[in-house]
Amino acid sequence: MILVINNQASEKEIEDVKKKIHQFGCEVYESMGLNHHILGVVGDTSDIESGTFQTISIVDKVILVQEPYKKANRLFHPDNTVVDVNDRSIGGKKLAIIAGPCSVESEEQILSIAKSVKNSGAGFLRGGAFKPRTSPYAFQGLKREGLELLKFAREKTGLPIVTEIMSTEFLDEFVEQVDVIQVGARNMQNFDLLRQLGKTNKPILLKRGLSATIEELLMSAEYIMAGGNENVILCERGIRTFEKYTRNTLDLSAIPAIKKLSHLPVIIDPSHAAGLWWMVEPMAKAAVVAGADGLIIEVHNDPENALCDGAQSIKPEKFDRLMGKLKILAQVEDREI
Amino acid sequence: MILVINNQASEKEIEDVKKKIHQFGCEVYESMGLNHHILGVVGDTSDIESGTFQTISIVDKVILVQEPYKKANRLFHPDNTVVDVNDRSIGGKKLAIIAGPCSVESEEQILSIAKSVKNSGAGFLRGGAFKPRTSPYAFQGLKREGLELLKFAREKTGLPIVTEIMSTEFLDEFVEQVDVIQVGARNMQNFDLLRQLGKTNKPILLKRGLSATIEELLMSAEYIMAGGNENVILCERGIRTFEKYTRNTLDLSAIPAIKKLSHLPVIIDPSHAAGLWWMVEPMAKAAVVAGADGLIIEVHNDPENALCDGAQSIKPEKFDRLMGKLKILAQVEDREI
Amino acid sequence: MILVINNQASEKEIEDVKKKIHQFGCEVYESMGLNHHILGVVGDTSDIESGTFQTISIVDKVILVQEPYKKANRLFHPDNTVVDVNDRSIGGKKLAIIAGPCSVESEEQILSIAKSVKNSGAGFLRGGAFKPRTSPYAFQGLKREGLELLKFAREKTGLPIVTEIMSTEFLDEFVEQVDVIQVGARNMQNFDLLRQLGKTNKPILLKRGLSATIEELLMSAEYIMAGGNENVILCERGIRTFEKYTRNTLDLSAIPAIKKLSHLPVIIDPSHAAGLWWMVEPMAKAAVVAGADGLIIEVHNDPENALCDGAQSIKPEKFDRLMGKLKILAQVEDREI
Amino acid sequence: MILVINNQASEKEIEDVKKKIHQFGCEVYESMGLNHHILGVVGDTSDIESGTFQTISIVDKVILVQEPYKKANRLFHPDNTVVDVNDRSIGGKKLAIIAGPCSVESEEQILSIAKSVKNSGAGFLRGGAFKPRTSPYAFQGLKREGLELLKFAREKTGLPIVTEIMSTEFLDEFVEQVDVIQVGARNMQNFDLLRQLGKTNKPILLKRGLSATIEELLMSAEYIMAGGNENVILCERGIRTFEKYTRNTLDLSAIPAIKKLSHLPVIIDPSHAAGLWWMVEPMAKAAVVAGADGLIIEVHNDPENALCDGAQSIKPEKFDRLMGKLKILAQVEDREI
Lengths: 337, 337, 337, 337
What we know:
Alpha-Beta Plaits, four-stranded antiparallel β-sheet, 34% helix, transferase (chains A, B, C, D), DAHP1/KDSA (chains A, B, C, D), 3-deoxy-7-phosphoheptulonate synthase activity (chains A, B, C, D), aldehyde-lyase activity (chains A, B, C, D)
């Protein structure tokens, strides 16, 4: 932490700031710039409230040097994390392809899609049982019945299931029944939920919030990891920008950025990003060559009658052709599908 | 709802779309533009999934005409809503001034601040007991003990208390003990929480999410209102933009916008918006003359040692001087403090 | 400038960086954090290309301490700048109210509006002669004829005229004929134009770009000032954000921010910000109490038939009522109109 | 164009609006929604000022159906445009790889880089002679001398040269000497410059502004094309968002979006987007598989001593390895390099 001190500060005022730094068990190094006086704070500053020094009138700026996350930080954990899910894994050489409908609608629907995406090479089945919807009047998911149907599809296909949790209320059921628990973008900073998930040992698929910085995403991962659960998979799914042609703007540069800052696996959701089915293919391909560890793709056998997000779902045949292309690109990148 | 149809669509394809519209109990009006064929959907379209028509290949665009919220919509409720809180109200001629520390830290602290802001003319006491913090290592609030201290301060000063709920887990305690339940920006789309709050009759202070549109804020209000609780107060607290000199960008145009779209009261939080104590005064004044129904301001007797958000808190003396200025402006605007 | 050095750097590599710092005539202070090695660069760093050190592989971060602008910086010029325009001034106790149509359309139109806004108390007349339009097919202004009409209106009313320059091609004519030369938001970083304007001594009204940070706005002012022209007036006119209910989001916190960072006057354009005539009044009032030095407001006698921006123009009667309200607020703020 | 009329409008008021529509030579179709009255405007609406109807008090919303660009619109020009540049082309099967330094610094530098990138397979040489810099104190380019050096490098290597124009002042020289004239992001809406370029027949590389929507980019292309010059190449180079880890956020979904809306070629600038040299490779690869028609990449033989943008430049050896990978990906995509 570096403090830039106003050049009109008195010696007494500067002494007071130094005393305060020492109270946190840190040391001070000092230097005079041309127009600024600089105080460097050496030691573990991660417990110092950022506001602590900003409130002091002679402090013009507080600059953080150290990233505020530890367990998610590649600095302290140089090797890539590989998260095990049943007999599979996410973060290794093999790309994790998670596919399925936005929401589980019926036994027939989920089973048909599950079989189909499995045949095309997907490794995991996604499907929403509890759905976060902007409108209280929209379909909110089949809830517990949806979980049952997902389990049924898993039984029939062997695909591990990935589904979103919306509240701590159902935590025990999710831990018991689900293979990967997804935290949606809108809940990325639902800290109570993160903390509870940190006490389990379930793989958590943590989606980046619509306007969350990469650092905030890593801090939310840190919440889960600080509780003891290091099985966190990060997911970029589009951020909110001024551009409205696409629903969100897919930030593929988040892949190399996160790979540099953290050791956690990163997957991409090309379906929610643009919200347009015909953009899924180019963005999925781009993600693979940019270094993603996997993809989560919405596939629906009847998008026009889907109960949610039909506009961004692709049909099984289209998914199959896409997988063919992705396999070639994965090979070029020395990965597998 | 208006559908813009591709000019290469066949008659048969258009017929199919019309049939689908009729299935929703809506009627179709039709018109040919120079390069586009237009289908208007007349009837109650609020139950139609937006994706329903976007998935059809001949549909180029789906344009919504009707706002997706009903109970929060001024169209169906022309008069301003006034929310009663104990013997006070929010949304009437008198501005609601809510003041207090970011977090409750001790009996002495909260009582001292409560007395002080009351003397300056504040009508409500704010204070965090459960704190949403970006870092798992930061102070998370005194929790239940914080609630007890707030109640103690209320008992001594008569000020109704406003505090944030972070999870449905503590809902009953909040309903029993708190006067206005605050939903923080990060939980604005925690739909489970909103739904539960909709089943109570408590006044809810709903903060706009960092990157939520005004329409999304109103949809979240709709969640609470759809459950039967119409005591919703909206709060603008700064949105996330590219500008980083301020922590967020206070969107004061949200005041006239919300007043036009909705009948619910709107208050402004100038403390969280910029995150800089010296911007609280100009932004608070601006909010009052722009038509806000109130303000929520962080006041701390010792910002330099505050356990959170010290950088944006003002001292009681500064708050007192600010209130003097606000009273004059309120009078100019034919409001009261 | 502060360099954060990777903790895996060798002594040799660090020595090389220090040598490079010395080459720029700067000194180095050094300190070891827990996980980082810090090199502080002391001296005039404003000539060092920011990329110079970022390219070195052992440098993890380059942190700038000093603002990159000098002449616009309040640090070196503590007193407010007051810009003289004919017999008036901008930046002093009296607020500068600039009013008039988006574009000059006819002698009758500009004269009628000029007289009307003068009667209401405006101090300056605005009107576009050369219009920057998103579409090549839209009305592009009366150009030279527009300038003539503005001069005619000035002759009849005595109001100094403010109008936008779009290209260096017409620079001489503008210098000779216009009282305040406006640089539009889209040209805020047209550096050639800025440089040319820096060689004149005309007052320049510099509008903030749609997505320009406050620092970038000050750097563009610096371009003009570096050439010797210190008569710069800054103008906030709304920034581009994700919110689309308003055309742009008016950033009123830019007023106190700029006042802290710079000595230049700041005015607000409430018309272009929201793009909605009914938001002009609340935002104009908010700007005055937030500390703006003036306003630039679009007034049109026949908005429905205006050749541009009718949607954000207010009628003369509405402007007159607004001025009545602004006079009271100015008085409360110890300013005048 | 569709007008949503307030449900409290009188018949007389609606009649007036219809008359106005007829005045523009358009026809009206009409329909009653449940809560809104809808007027459809049929005919060529591209000449109607968007504000024309928004100013009418009974008009709640104006919805545009037709895109405002014509010549750039794929609707009227279904086939891809291929722009010829000397003996090469941009927009065909062969990807256009444009490489070179941020700015031309010396004969030795530009020649060495030109030879090197040619050997690696680049088809065009880029290099800045006139440099737009945020700071007036930063290196502004070698200007005319830079153009001479570029011509010299072209003579020696045969690579067509691409360089940025900053002002109409040098237009004739650029037309005579340069092969592709680049319009930088900051000048995307310098309409005077665009108009002048429209009168030439030079290939124009038009970069998307930092906060320009895709539609605005296409409108700026339209400015050039409306003047008669249809040789426009579009370039996405990162947009401004809240995320600050990267300098800008590369919007790769702009590739399929532009391909759908327009027939013009699209290239990607992975260097300016992130501003980080180590992100150039993953983003360049992603661009190719997402369907880009080419890349513009900064290559410098000595990034640490580059006079600008060193932080985002890659060395020739790195560029060579990157080209090897891109060739494989191009082949997979049925393109060539």
